[in-house]
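Lab notebook, bench 4. The sequencing result for the construct came back, and we need a structural model before the next group meeting so we can plan mutations. Quick request posted to the team channel:

Model the 3D structure of this chain.
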Amino acid sequence: MSTVMKTTRDVKGIGLSIPRPDGPDKVTGQVQYVADLNPRGLLHAKLLRSPYAHAKIVRIDVSRAKALPGVRAVITAADIPQLKKKAPTLAIAEEALALIDVQYEVLPVAADPLESMKPGAPPVAELGTEADTSEALAHGSVAGVSTEAKPSKAVNISQQARLQRGDVAKAFAESDVVIENTYRVPMVHQGYLEPHAVLAQWDSSGNLTLWASTQGSFNTRSEVADVLELSENNIKVIPMECGGGFGGKIRALCEPITAVLAKATNRPVRYVMTRREELEAGMPAPQVIIKMKTGAKRDGTLMAIEAEAILESGAYSGAVLAVAGVFLASLYLFPNFDVKGFEVLTHKPSIAAYRAPVAPQTIFAIDSQMEQMAKKLGVDPVEFRLRHLQREGDKMANNQPWLSNGGVEVLTRLAEHPIWKKRAEWKASSKDGKLRGTGISLGGWLGGLQPTGATVRLNPDGTLQVMTGQVDIAGTNIALAQIAATAYGVDIDKVKITTGDTDVAPMTGLSAGSKTTYTVGVAVIQAAEIARKQTLEIAAKELEASVHDLEIEDGRVVVRGVPDKGITLASIGKKGNLYMSKVEPVLGASHPAFSVQAPAFCAQLARIEVDPDTGEVTLHNFVVAQDVGKAINPAQIEGQMQGGAVQSLGMALTEALLYDDKARLTNPSLLDYRKLTSADLPNIETIIVEKPAPHGPFGARGVGEPPIVPAPAAIANAIEDATGVRLTHLPLSPERIALAIASA
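Done. Here's the predicted structure in token form:
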């Protein structure tokens, strides 16, 4: 069915900038998170973690910890699956950890992915690991790319893939300009404010309830059921307010162990990771190393790209390998390409998604190459990109056609921006020894898909109740309410939306992959249209009129052209709730699946100043242009664009999880792991571009992923414009910049 409809009159729904209704409660500390829950008899859990990246446990002595007053249970792997590790206060739990005596046999470590790939490297998993593609599925699968798990003769290579077309060697031989670089992006943390947190409680019937900070209630339920070998009917997941996730809270990292602890103690148990634990044992984004070679003719014709992408996934397989290969070979029209991808295991924490997983790293490489080729050829860098940017219908590297997207439109909008047009003047105005430059970049995301569901109910007072199981992390609930209002035909203030738990909500997918509005929005439209149809059919009988002659106006169903002849929505709602009434309640339900993605693109523009002595970068202006399809709630979209840009700038300038040669984290605090703050940033200008997605709700596309993608390349391009040096390793720190300038 169509996802774009016309209502009989304008209603206060889509297109309005509506503040998040939970905003005041959040800024005043009224919202409850998992850490705020204190049921009677609550116990606190703590985990003793190994100080070594790779070691064998020789002996564990927990006797002193068990003897500590207040400790209810101490559990080791020998006690699984019936674990037990609990204390009535957090302080006692922490003290008990220090009383556990563990003897380790320290083993050789694979700390660097390049070394880990070599023969003779310490094996991370003796027999390799099965490739876990759940992250790829969560963020939208890439069709037509096959990956081989556990390739032969490769101890620590858990996945590999290859995309090829044409004769690469011949194309390079015929190229006039060939540029070759190695790009390296370290592991980074997603940076959510609320750490992983869960509270678990069992009832006397053996049913488990989990209050969780999660990006997907149903996914959490399924994973816990699988680990604990329970029926999903015996598990209820209540999604609490989630203080950020960005892909890092897709997996059930803490829920199974907390559930086991609650079972062992027969008490409610809460486990909240510390910030140090988050950085040391959370699930960061992978390190990505890309070796790339590109060639072009003197007239600017692209000839070939050859690349090898190495994704470090930590101790277990799970990287989105296909995305890297497809973006490298598909964004620009290289007629000849050979792109290899390897997922490599090391003795580091297992990785997870981070907002457009591996797209920022991939775009950093390919966009930097395009910028350098344009410079070497002496052509305008934007015109060079636009000349070769693939359009709708062009064949991607996986032989799938590019779908409708606004890549050309967003890049063109920034090319018309005064900051870009006056870049030469900015560069020439350098003073006090500082160097000035401007950089631009284009990136995007293919868009995610996942089946979902929603219900829309007419209440006896004429208001609408929308129910989904979608976790509202980014303000998506208000957008879904706007969609319901417009589709049904009432104002937004008549709509309430609820995120239900796994016992009552319709099956709903993850809040990930820039697909919440795109997929759940369709379910809400369909459910609202069904509810509207039911409403009009009831009214038609009451008014003795044709359904086709009716419309909804100001809370009433009226006969078109005869406004005095009508019935209120409240009257219809009450008829479905009266004793002995023969009128069915109005309840629309929808559970669609999807097959068509909606790629979304974002272009970013940076104006900077560099101190050549210290390497310090001052960001003076930053502009984000993004294709959103249709802006359901412009204010919320601007917030997504700005937030994603800040995370992207953090990856570009300051962020890196630093490990020593024993794979131990050396910066496990926010004092040492440097995230950007508002003091580091100028006002971020946003430009919303609307190129409707054919299958999106009212034409909307996902908006969460694209803004995190382009900044690393845009900043690197600006630094080269200012200083003449090209940096290929992130972050673009003052030390790295100053050394590069000195070397040049």
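The chain has four domains: 8-31+450-590, 39-106+196-272, 128-190+286-380, 403-447+595-744.
Will bring this to the meeting.
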